[in-house]
TrEMBL record:
CDD domains: ABC_PstB_phosphate_transporter (cd03260). This is Phosphate ABC transporter ATP-binding protein PstB. InterPro entries: AAA+_ATPase, ABC_transporter-like_ATP-bd, ABC_transporter-like_CS, P-loop_NTPase, PstB-like. The gene is pstB. It holds the Pfam family ABC_tran. Residues 5-248 form the ABC transporter domain. It comes from Myceligenerans crystallogenes.
Amino acid sequence: MAQRIDVKDVNIYYGDFLAVEGVSMSIEPRSVTAFIGPSGCGKSTFLRTLNRMHEVIPGAYVDGSVLLEGVDLYGPDIDPVAVRRNVGMVFQRPNPFPTMSIKDNVLAGVKLNNRRITKSDADDLVEASLRGANLWNEVKDRLDKPGSGLSGGQQQRLCIARTIAVKPQVVLMDEPCSALDPISTLAIEDLIQELKKDYTIVIVTHNMQQAARVSDKTAFFNIAGTGKPGKLIEMDETATIFSSPTEKATEDYVSGRFG
Ligand SMILES: Nc1ncnc2c1ncn2[C@@H]1O[C@H](COP(=O)(O)OP(=O)(O)OP(=O)(O)O)[C@@H](O)[C@H]1O
Ligand SMILES: [Mg+2]
C-alpha cells in the first residue's frame, strides 16, 4: 500500500475563478506531508484535486496532471470513483453516519463499493480497521451501538477506520483535529505516525506545532490578495521550513508574523 504522488503544473478553477495556480510537487510514499498557509490560499482546494473530489462542484475543473505511481488520475480511462477509493479522505468535522452502528460505519465505504463480503470477513475487517485507527479497545464491546454515541475524538478515529477499511494507498486529511480537544488531537497525531508506515499521508493544518510534530515534509501555500490565485511558495523538509526556509514569506508565516 502507499504510493507516490507527482503533481505537475496544476491549475485549479471554480468556473472562471483561478483558485490555485501552477502547483508542482512530489509526495513520497510512507511519509506525512503537511500543507500550511493562510485561510483562502487553496489548501483544501488543492487537497481535493488529489482524489478528484474537486470536480464534483459544478463548474469546477483542473488542468495539469496528478500522477499516482506514474498514472495520471486525470487520464481519459480513469474512473474517478476508483480514484476516490484509492485516495481516501478524512474531513475537518467527524462525519460518521449518525444512525448507523459503529460496525456499519466502518463497513460503509466497503459496502458503497459494492463489495460482497461474508460476515466473518466483515468482522475481521471491522476489527483490523478499528485497531488500525487505534479505536478498537474503546469500542469493541459496543460495535452495534450508533456511531454518534462516541466522543468527537472517537468519531474522528471512526472516520479514519472507515477510510482505511477500503484499503486506500493514500489518505488525505483536511484539518482532521480542528474540532478536537488537545488529548484527542494527540491521539490522532500518534495515529498518523502509525498510519504512515502503510500509507502516503497528506494533512492540511493551521496548527504549526502539529505540522512540526507530525510531518516529514511541509508545503507552504500563500495568496497575494483577494481574488488572486493561491500558489505553492515552497516545500521542503519540515525541519527546514520551520528553521531556515528559503522564502521570506514562509519565514514570516511560520514565525507568526502573518496568517
Ligand atoms: N465551492 C467553491 N466555489 C467557489 N469558490 C470556492 C469554493 N470553495 C473554495 N473556493 C474559493 O477558493 C479559494 C481557496 O479556498 P480553500 O477553501 O481551498 O482555501 P483554504 O486554504 O483551504 O482555506 P482555509 O484555511 O480557510 O480552510 C478561496 O478564494 C475560496 O473562496
Ligand atoms: Mg481549507
